[in-house]
Amino acid sequence: MVPAKAFDLTRQGQGEPLGERIVVSGRVLDQDGQAVRESLVEIWQANSAGRYLHKMDQHDAPLDPNFTGVGQTFTDEEGRYRFITIRPGAYPWRNHQNAWRPQHIHFSLFGPAFATRLVTQMYFPGDPLLEFDPIFNSVADDQAKKSLISKFDWATTTPEIALGFLFDIILCGRNATPMER
Question: Could you list the active site residues?
Fold first, then answer.
């Protein structure tokens, strides 16, 4: 059972997390465009300063005591999911001189068994670090690369509270969202 506040990463602490609040939503679809119902969708991300709440993250950016960076929800009957979170910060990752990861959110989708877990990353439109990111650029097909970039969405933007971003995930077929191996 997913806790009621698991989809709202801004309500998991004792206070408000730091950073720009956003709504991330979309649909999980099969190769024929049909909804994938009742699929567990998990996200994890860095905080607004670019730091993960994880012992392996030794970046000197501050941790946010009101932000875990982890959320879960299930898709509905139409394959929709929705998260309320904060926009993650870019961070250095030390794999080469002056290397920075662009702002991104990791997505994990589970099928009927744990062995059917799929993982991908969602990026933000207009991020200047995308052209330098080896993970993003490991996707050879330009159309597939574009599918990893969310789209700004007025319809899910909450006035005076949060900007909305759409990110549909297609699980298989010619138009499948690129997944990590």
Answer: 52, 91, 101, 104, 106
Q: Which residue has the tokens 């662009």?
A: 102
Q: What is the pLDDT of residues 86-107, one digit of tens each?
A: 999 999 988 888 899 999 999 9
| Nearby residues of 46 by Cβ (< 8 Å), 6 or more positions away | 52, 57, 69, 88, 89, 91
What is the full DSSP assignment across 29-84? E-TTS-B-TT-EEEEE---TTS--SSTT---SSPP-TT---EEEEE--TTSEEEEE
| C-alpha 23 chain-centroid distance | 11
Q: Distance between CA atoms of 11 and 101, rounded to whole angstroms?
A: 26
| Averaged pLDDT for residues 146-170 | 97
CATH number belonging to the domain at 4-170, selected among 3.30.1460.30, 1.10.510.10, 2.60.130.10, 3.30.230.10: 2.60.130.10
User: What does the domain layout of the chain look like in residue ranges?
Assistant: 4-170
Q: How far apart are CA 149 and CA 130, in angstroms?
A: 10
Query: Per-residue pLDDT averaged across 53-73, rounded?
Result: 93
Query: Using CA atoms, how far apart are residues 127 and 90, in angstroms rounded to an integer?
Result: 10
Closest to 48 in 3D by CA, of 12, 10, 17, 93: 17
